[in-house]
């Protein structure tokens, strides 16, 4: 029977909470300690059965842990790592679940007694809901998880973290932090930034117009509001923490949008048609890659103008 | 028993095909004639049972019709109206399902023998699939349909078209074409334009990067590809046909995006956090307006970076 022993979760929201449930449900853990700053979060985590112990102090939380999973807002991880460092055992493996990696490596690694035990990670899974109540057992099933170990990482540490995510149902890929950040900038960070922007544009409309937007949101807007309902603290940290890659992709997007704007203004239908035909191919590629599914025709979120 | 008599569908794709199924399933129609340019479309419409007769010539198709529903690509409707006009009976009611209204009114009305019988419409429902095979009976259930009758419209014509859409399960609102076009520009047209743009941005990446985008699309990109998989001809027409309102909303969006870009560049986390918190409220408004549903936590499309 696989067991990952004593796992300490620093921060106990959607991701770490779901990890707790996934490990528990399959008997993959002996003890779970959760660390949270707010007393009500600790209390709730215990009530929900996400952990055996809930403590406030990071150094105390990591004592005796085989694996420590950092799941705080990404830009808080450096400070948390510094606070937990005195409690770490030499063989404890440290990982994280942050959505950008190079910055987290830079923030966290210097505080660790042995950076070779650090295996940065990013489970590419989630919902727009946050907090321990949003956690559920199957969040990682059939999803991907990226690990970005440093060149100096211990092989056994990498394999343990890989095994942990595979145990939850994910498929694991390894790459450099920089490569991860470029790929996720376009597949995740830019889409979120754009969704936040357009929903914000609506928020600036006068109140009556907003009410109508709500009524007719099914024409396409609904999907954007879902993405833009994601956790504000986390997304602030992700966009600031992956600034360069996000700005690079945003620059490309803005150029492309300006070109389309011009095509609309000048009635260049062929340019629009060509692009809209190409994007259909991309849709097929995404479906083929198994990261999507063909929606049922009675899907209530199906869109059309 | 409600019956709308002889209904002629000009164009028989997702929307008109679904209308045919919805009317048929509830016994709301005596005869359905479909008009399509391509022989294979006419054949398929007959095979699928979407119509009793399938003809090529619009003037022939509308002969004896109580209601004619224009469902061609929006910018083709003017030419189709001109071709069908000689076959129209004086009392035939004409409607359409185009996603922008002012331009369609301007294109179609002048060709009709009696514009008072024209009741422009827009069922705000659909999927990213197109063609007669994509049609299904419940497409309009619990969706909204906007009618934009001219001031000179016959009251009985408006009430008949309202009754037809209510019969399919939709709730019907009346407004001016111009007002419709402004509301839909932000709830539907701009979201589609943006989704097409970002998916196009990915299409311009080198091939290996694209493959990775497909793999990690679950981080948010997937939803955009679905929207950007919609019918190219229709969307070219919608964006060109609602040019002014789309450019106006696009201008606001671009300004807002530039402000966020600047906030990211200069590390202004508070600005990002404030926006991301406001957009959560909009999400709640959309859900409250019943145009969305709270996704189940095991939704395979749920996103997270």
Describe the protein.
Two copies of one chain form a homodimer. In chain A, helix 4 packs parallel to helix 5 (102-108) and helix 7 crosses helix 9. Chain A has helices at 14-25, 39-47, 58-61, 77-84, 102-108, 155-167, 177-203, 207-215, 221-227, 232-241, 243-265, 269-288; strands at 6-10, 31-35, 53-55, 67-70, 93-96, 118-119, 121-124, 144-147, 171-174. Chain A has 305 residues and is an alpha/beta fold. Chain A starts with 5 loop residues before the first strand and ends in a 17-residue tail after the last helix. Chain A is globular, with a radius of gyration of 21 Å. Chain A folds into two domains: 6-175, NAD(P)-binding Rossmann-like Domain (Rossmann fold); 179-288, Orthogonal Bundle (6-phosphogluconate dehydrogenase C-terminal fold), CATH 1.10.3660. At the A-B interface, helix 7, helix 8, helix 9, helix 10 and helix 11 of A face helix 7, helix 8, helix 9, helix 10 and helix 11 of B.
Q: In CATH terms, what is the architecture of the largest domain in chain A? A: 3-Layer(aba) Sandwich
From the N-terminal CA to the C-terminal CA of chain A, the straight-line distance is 53 Å
Average of the residue pLDDT scores of chain A? 92
Radius of gyration of chain A, in angstroms, nearest whole number: 21 Å
Total number of helical segments of chain A? 12
CATH-defined fold name of the largest domain in chain A? Rossmann fold
Under the CATH scheme, which class of the largest domain in chain A? Alpha Beta
Strand order of the largest sheet of chain A: 3-2-1-4-5-6
Parts with pLDDT < 50 across at least 5 consecutive residues of chain A: 292-305
Strand content of chain A: 5-15%
What percentage of residues of chain A falls in helices of 4 or more residues? 40-55%
Please describe the biggest sheet of chain A, giving its number of strands, its sense, and whether it closes into a barrel.
6 strands, parallel
Quaternary state reads homodimer
């Amino acid at each position: 029977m696989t067991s990952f022993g004593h796992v300490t979760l620093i921060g106990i929201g959607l991701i770490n909470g779901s990890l707790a449930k996934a490990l528990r449900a399959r008997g993959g853990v002996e003890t779970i300690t959760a660390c949270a700053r707010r007393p009500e979060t600790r209390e709730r985590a215990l009530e929900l059965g996400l952990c055996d112990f809930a403590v406030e102090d990071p150094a105390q939380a990591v004592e005796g842990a085989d694996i420590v999973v950092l799941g705080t807002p990404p830009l808080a991880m450096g400070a948390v790592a510094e606070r937990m460092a005195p409690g770490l055992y030499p063989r404890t493996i440290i990982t994280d679940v942050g959505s950008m990696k190079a910055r987290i490596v830079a923030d966290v690694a210097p505080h660790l007694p042995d950076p070779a035990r650090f295996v940065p990670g990013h489970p590419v899974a989630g919902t727009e809901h946050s907090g321990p109540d949003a956690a559920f057992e199957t969040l990682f099933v059939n999803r991907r998880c990226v690990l970005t170990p440093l060149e100096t990482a211990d092989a056994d540490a990498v394999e343990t973290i890989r095994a942990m995510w595979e145990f939850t149902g994910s498929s694991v890929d390894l790459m450099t932090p920089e490569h991860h950040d470029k790929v996720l900038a376009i597949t995740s960070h830019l889409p979120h930034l754009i969704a936040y922007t357009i929903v914000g544009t609506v928020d600036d409309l006068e109140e009556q117009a907003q009410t109508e937007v709500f009524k007719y949101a099914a024409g396409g807007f609904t999907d954007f509001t879902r993405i833009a309902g994601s956790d504000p603290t986390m997304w602030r940290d992700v966009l600031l923490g992956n600034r360069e890659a996000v700005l690079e992709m945003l620059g490309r997007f803005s150029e492309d949008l300006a070109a389309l704007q011009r095509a609309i203004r000048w009635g260049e239908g062929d340019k629009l048609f060509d692009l809209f035909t190409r994007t259909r191919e991309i849709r097929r590629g995404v479906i083929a890659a198994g990261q999507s599914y063909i929606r049922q025709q009675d899907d209530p979120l199906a869109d059309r103008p």
